[in-house]
Amino acid sequence: MGLAEEDGVFGKVPVWMKGKGPENSTGDELESWFEGHVKRPTEAIYQRYFVELILRQRPLPPSMDGRHIPLDCSNEHHLIDERRGHAYLNNSIRSSRYTVWDFLPKQFAFQATRLHNFYFICIGVPQAIPGLSTTGNYTTILPLTFFILLTVVKEAYDDYCRHRMDKVENSQSATVLRPRGAHEHGLASQLHSWRVGLDKLPWPRKASQRSPGQVLIEDDVDEELKWARIPWHSITVGDVVKLRRDDAVPADIALLSASGESGVAYIETMALDGETNLKSKQAPHALQKCCANMASIRSVSAAVVSEDPNRDLYDYNGRVTIADKSIPLTLNEVVFRGSVLRNTKYAIGLVLNTGEECKIRMNANHHPKAKKPRLERYANQVVLTLIIYVVLLSIGVSMGYLIWHANFEVNAWYLNNAYVSFKEIIVGFLIMFNNVIPLALYVSLEIVKIGQMIMIQSDEHMYDAESDRKMVCNTNTILENLGQVSYILSDKTGTLTENVMRFRGMSIGGIAFTHGDVPAEEEQGNSAGRMSVVGRASIGSEQQVVGGAERSGNGKVSFTVESIELSSLEGSPSRPTGRPSLQQRQSSGAFSRGSKQVSNDAFTTTKLLEYMHDHPMAPISQKAHSFLLAMAICHTALPETGSDGSTTFQASSPDELALLQAAQDLGYLLIQRSTQSITLLQTSSTGTQNRHVYEILDVIEFSSKRKRMSIVVRCPDGRIWLLCKGADSAIMSRLRQAELASRKSHEVRRSVQAERELVRRSIEMEARNSFGNRPSMSIVRGTSMDIRPIAHSAGGKRSLTLEVPRGKDGVRVQTQSLDVPRMTNGSRVHTTSLDVPGRSSHTTSNVLSSPDIIDDATVFTRCFKQIDDFAAQGLRTLLFAHKFIPAADYSTWKRGYQEASTSLINRQQRIEAAAELVEHGFELLGASAIEDKLQEGVPETIEKLRRANIKIWMLTGDKRETAINIAHSARICKPESEIFVLDSQKSDLEAQLNEAAMDIRTGCLHSVLVIDGHTLSEVDADTSLKQTFYALIPLVASVICCRASPAQKASIVLAIRHRLPSALTLAIGDGANDIAMIQSSHVGVGISGKEGLQAARVADYSISQFRFLQRLLLVHGRWNYIRTARFILATFWKEMFFYMMQALYTRPAGYTGTSLYENWSLTVLNTLFTSLCTIVPGIFEQDLKAETLLAVPELYVFGQRNKGLNMPDYAWWMLLATAQGMVVWFVAWAGFGQGARMSDNGLFALGDLCFTLGICWTNVKLLVLETHYKTRIVAVSFCVTVGGWFAWNGFMSGVYSDNLSPYDVKGGFSSTFGNDPAWWATLVLALAILAVVDIGYKSARIWARTEGLWPLWKAVGLGLGGRRARIVNAEEVDVGVWQGLEKEGAVGHEHESRGRRGYEDDGLDE
């Protein structure tokens, strides 16, 4: 039943979630300790004593013998659930997090327990007490209340939207059997909801041909029963529902009957498991006869015993009793909610599970917790340190007051009875300095994130014109998480692929034939210009070569670095392909980037048809004729003729559909199919058409165990013909020459393994960056370098030269362009070690008439090599075989097969055993190659994300072979990858795991682990296996999990989060089966694709194409991470800077708590005068251009390694604020304070000078010196803020009334100190000192980094002033160096118009 489970705090939780993961950082240790010692024990106590003891909500015990459901439509009473003691759950579902009753308590408890809110509540409450605060009574509590209420209202609206979505689904209508005269649930009240929600269904749905209000016209009429339309939420366990074609299944049901032959119904389960194949479900034979109409349903005496609800999608156990005779009920007879009826006129079923007890709902992630940004963890650490600082500072100045009181206050007659108690003075100082942790941080942060959300949604580069959809942010709280992702867990169907199958080629007689024309723009795109890091300028005319470098006349050695073109093998002379063993399967190395091309040596199917017409009796023509007939006959599809005469097909799998469409293109059209015959319309090259009827004798259907299907037909000439298609492993051993085929297959495999070993050795010699990948760019530098752009170098290649003074080691920058070398006609160059015929050495006629076509050994060698070529390019391959059966032999076999087909015991096993008796001695017809078309730009995106130190995993419900093929095609599997397949059905699972762990730990360049859902459940059930498996998570590059249920997908995400607390996960999918995974990850991305918007609606972010993920992460993710991190640091810096002057003023003020700043100015400080300088960079800052970030994905590790916000950086900014605050205070105190000659010796003049210096320097530093991307918005913000402050001074000077307070504001700025040159001179002097020191420091740091002297610990390791060169990876180069390259124009791109996206591994996106 899926993953192993134990009783948890809230129901069932996976066993492995109870272990302890590694603790990689202080924050992780704190979080782990908190969860283990505080959170989990508290939740356990809450569950045991409140939920179970008080609310009486205990975990449900298992039933004695399952749930008993009688087939009785006349019963109007609800059935009783023996586990609960009352009726079964209704069929409504709820995905919202709150109810009307618990929303406010839960929200206020959540808000009050957030660290910053708790802190401000502790400050705001005593501040409201009169006499304690010197900064006002309500300046904290009122803004805090407003902020909390705003957050609560936002959460309420989000949950209201979820309630509306639930109501839409619960209000859909279904056809249910009801007694006449019973209470009718009319649909008039549901009509509006149904129409509004039609496009919001949680699974794909074709347009229905009837409206919900339409009266059902049924041929089946009964006096006591009727078919009634009711809303889904009114369906109960025991109801009989009727589905029509393209109807969604409203609950888990057992099939009673269906309109298909022998009670077969075709079901689409894409929303459940992601599989595109239609599954055939068959009603039990006894029920099919008894439940064909209402009268028979009313009269039958039957009951179903069903297992208790569980979340296992791949198993079901039950039984049905008819007239005291029990029949097993298995997965083949049950249809789950979330499925859709396809290609079947109608089906009738009995409801087994409803609502939250349906399989799809039990696999859902119920009421997921709100996601938090990763930066909040570090911000909380900062807040904790500042709380400690504020407390210590308040204690210190309070002690200062006690000393001042003892030394001065007691002797001052005018201060008699003015003594303040210690507890009051310390509370006053706590209130005074509380703004060191500003509430404005959280208010402004919401504004910043709204601005970031608008910026990211307005990016036209993530707009898909074909679907007319743009990027959508469903939440703005975790935007910075996009810049810290370490793991991407992706669905396959509809996410990586387009769910469109195309027949791309076939192998017949050892010759490969391509099918379909490659668009001209694809060929142009294959040779389009690359984009790389290049330079623009010219070198001096006098040059001489010195030691591999060019010495120019100016005495500098210039090392020119050009774009290096690598072959598809990254340096290997041949392309590795192959079909190795399953246990440790190597990744093939076909580099067909973009649209798949089968082979450079292949002929086209058009040439084949021409040759067949000219030479109809040639061996290749006969083989091709039989192969094309097999494509048109060996299937279970049905043809449909449209009103315009066109023929379409209804197939159980997209592969069959692609084969039939290809057969139609080649002149073999299926026009009619019944249970007895298949009719083909064969069109010759001259246009003549002939009908051929093949009598269907038997169909042995495909199963995952057999991996093949067969059909027995009687040909028009009377011969009995057996056709079989399936996986190469299933067909090869059943050939007449099976031993020869096996030997040739092993020869091909060994050849491919040898080629691959050469590639691996070559790749092992290449340089690696700091996280093990090949670098986009590496710098070899000495201790000094002069970066200058230069012109085109010899040969017309654009290049970048970094010059250093003579005698120094050089700087070499290399960029790798993984473009495939091409021949002059634009075809790819493929070299192999086997003899495969090609047009370069033979004419078409000679090759097609070669005697090798009838030589089995040659055909096997060539065919198996071509199959490997197909598989290497991610194409799905099938082998076709055939044989003719003598009539007597067929009659003998038919009797045994008939007995097996009608057996009531072990029917499927007996059918498979009977099939083994006839499926042998085949002749090989050939192989087909079908492309599961990838979305545009998928391989390029995955390669760039991998270079950004992001690991990509693929979690799919599809079968293993399909998943591995797509992994090759999408480049999840690399040419040097070693693939380890874990299969509990094959051998000892522990031995497999240990062997894989040993191989991975001893050193694999790129390891890929493949596991299926059943094996994963066994791993989770065993403690030692679980420990070994999850210990491999940090070591493997990728994991492919196939046949995974939605719950297992979510469990894998949670496993990564638990085992690697410092890693950030991103889940991406497009179907309802991906929702649990998306909600469990740190970041959820939904694809708004052809399958609907079910995942896009619940995800955090929605994009229309997978390729947009690279821009979302590499560009916007980094920008938003840096913006938010800088915003947090800048906010804390400015508060520390402002209040440092206040802290220093306490000494001259006798530690009495007198504020240096005037109250009204202090109140509007963070609102009017220091808000734009943090908000504007927080929304618009771009430290590097998008082109640079896409060209060098390694720069993404900046966020992964928390370089934007960490304790050392925070400490440096606080130290800077302290030093600069001291400079401002002492300059102001010396220039316009004690001992200075001034026109105004009041406190306001000094305080206003410090305040003005604070505002001016804050805006200069944050908007001018720290902001890299300076736009008009930045300039306007600076002018408005600084100019607004002086306007505020003039306004206050005029409107302030005369009073006796220390702040003599009236006329001060306009008449007294505002006209004093000393005041202005002090202002200018302090600003000049701050600016010179800051600019000087930045210049020195850039020089030190350029010289290789920074960071100091690395420079010391190399030897200060040393002349040794060292390699610096792109991710280790300081951002300032990259910014310098951008300013010098050294980072550019050349781009030619391309019809498709080619492989731009080191290119820049426009």
Structure characterization notes:
Helix content is 40%, strand content 18%. The protein has 1406 residues and is α+β, with helices and mostly antiparallel strands. It has a ten-stranded mixed beta sheet with strand order 18-46-45-44-19-40-43-42-41-25, with helices on both faces. Helix 10 runs parallel beside helix 31 and helix 31 runs parallel beside helix 37. The longest helix has 38 residues.
Unreliable segments of 5+ consecutive residues: 1-31, 184-217, 518-601, 781-842, 1356-1365, 1388-1406
Q: Which of globular, elongated, flat, extended, rod-shaped describes the shape? A: elongated
- Strand tally is 47
How many helices? 43
Portion of residues in beta strands equals: 15-25%
Gap between N and C termini, in Å?
A: 49 Å
